[in-house]
Design goal:
The longest helix is centred in the N-terminal third of the chain and has 73 residues, at 2-74. This protein is α/β, with parallel strands linked by helices. The chain contains three helices and 30 strands. The N and C termini lie far apart (95 Å). Helix content is 19%, strand content 43%. It has a 22-stranded parallel sheet that branches. A six-stranded antiparallel sheet has the order 1-2-5-6-7-30. Strands 3-4 form a two-stranded antiparallel sheet.
């Protein structure tokens, strides 16, 4: 009996030992599984953090490109630092979020066609690993008059015998056979309902508009292109909606080098016909009266700090070129003729004011030239005979009524200007050149 009791106790101890070993083995298995799950979870958190940070940095790269373009068009890049051929800035105060600071570098480099924009953005993960995103953007230089008629506060075109189209003065006058084209683009990013009114007028070209609701047409309206099908008065394919476009900045009034005194008189000729020299004139206000004619025979620049009023004739000779910087209103009344040559590239008017101004061509006034006045209201009002506008305009708004013709001169798209617009032509990422940007600029 005693031997049997001892045997039973030994068997019980062996079973308990086996159970403990089993429990320990199970614990080890659970621990291994839990450790693996925890490690997997931590890895997933790191990957998620990296993915979030990468997407956030991509957003910062896009924002840096937009900000740099805005500063480029406003002239603010003049305050950027320069190293060799690079003009650059570090947006050091940007953040991914409240707890993650970011460093964003932008540099601009001149190219034959425009600019190369290099962008580098970086931020650190929670584990200290540095995440970097880069971009290399090609910017093409464009004329500010590439569209023909650009307005940012809406337009009202309502009258009789109003026509908008295009021609190329390099191929001769507008009236030449085969020189009438449909390359004018009426660009209006306006989004308010009814802010763009096209009533009783004909557009041989295209309209780019902010929203569909903003455009109002009338029963006599006609909008079409060369490839438009016959029949419908309005070709919907010639109208595009959903356009977003920033208002350009006006150019600053330049300094007049060695200004020439104005002689005055009923028949005045200015400018050097040989083209070897240019003349600068400075005015507070300037008025060409009805009995006066001003002939521009060479390269001339006017700096008008007040208003420019023209009731007489402004003639740009074949050798002439006139660039006007105006800080006030431009008023042409009656039978005033501004640039009777109909060569729009020879006359360029830049309104420098950031305040609302007025450009008014009334009566039978003819104009041939380009107007850059992003905050101005252009008023075209024709009389008994048609007033005519040959050229292009960048404006706040435009109001055409009565009898008036607007002919976009396509030659302005390729004429050198004192200011340019830059458009993205190619976007590449990642860029090894941009990746080295912080190190290169910090040296």
């Amino acid at each position: 009996m005693q031997n049997e009791s001892i045997t039973i106790r030994e068997q019980g101890s062996s079973q308990r030992g086996s159970a403990i070993v089993g429990v320990l083995l199970l614990g080890v298995v659970v621990l291994v599984v839990a450790t693996g799950y925890l490690r997997s979870s931590l890895n997933q958190l790191v990957i998620a953090d990296q993915s979030h940070l990468t997407l956030s940095l991509d957003t910062l790269v896009d924002a840096a490109a937009d900000q740099a373009l805005l500063m480029l068009h406003s002239g603010a890049v003049a305050n950027w630092q320069t190293v060799d051929e690079l003009r650059w800035r570090n947006f050091a105060d940007w953040q991914v979020d409240a707890n993650t600071p970011a460093s964003v570098w932008v540099a601009l480099q001149e190219t034959d066609d425009g600019l190369l924009m290099l962008i580098h953005a970086s931020a650190s993960q929670r584990n200290g690993r540095l995440i970097q995103r880069t971009a290399e953007i090609q910017l093409n230089r464009q004329s500010p008059f590439i569209y023909g008629l650009e307005v940012h506060d809406g337009f009202s075109i309502n009258g009789r015998n109003i026509t908008l189209d295009s021609f190329d003065s390099n191929n001769g006058p507008y009236a030449n056979p085969g020189n009438r084209n449909d390359r004018i683009i009426l660009l209006s990013p306006a989004s308010e309902m009814g802010s763009a009114r096209f009533i009783n007028a004909e557009l041989f070209g295209s309209i780019l508009i902010g929203t569909e609701e903003s455009l109002t047409t009338g029963p006599q309206s006609r909008i079409y292109r060369r490839q438009s099908p016959p029949g419908p008065r309005i070709d919907n394919n010639a109208i595009r909606h959903g356009i977003r476009f920033d208002r350009p900045f006006p150019i600053k009034m330049p300094k007049a080098e060695d200004p020439v005194l104005w002689a005055g008189g009923e028949n005045v000729e200015i400018g050097d016909r040989s083209g070897f020299t240019s003349e600068n004139y400075v005015f507070d206000d300037f008025h060409i009266r009805a009995d006066e004619t001003v002939r521009v025979a060479g390269k001339v620049r006017w700096h008008v700090h007040g208003d420019l009023i023209i009731n007489g004739n402004l003639v740009i000779e074949e050798t002439g070129d006139l660039e006007v910087y105006l800080n006030g209103d431009l008023i042409a009344r009656g039978g005033a003729i501004l640039n009777s040559s109909e060569q729009a590239p020879r006359l360029r008017i830049f309104v420098t004011s950031t305040e609302p101004t007025t450009v008014q061509l009334a009566g039978n006034a003819h104009f041939a030239g380009a107007i850059h006045a992003p905050h101005a209201s252009l008023q075209l009002a024709g009389g008994g005979n048609n007033g005519r506008f040959f050229g292009a305009a960048v404006l706040g708004s435009i109001d055409i009524n009565g009898r008036y013709q607007f002919h976009f001169d396509e030659a302005l798209r390729f004429t050198p200007q004192p200011l340019y617009r830059y458009a993205v032509s190619a976007w590449q990422r990642p860029s090894a050149t941009a990746l080295q940007l912080p190190q290169r600029l910090a040296e």
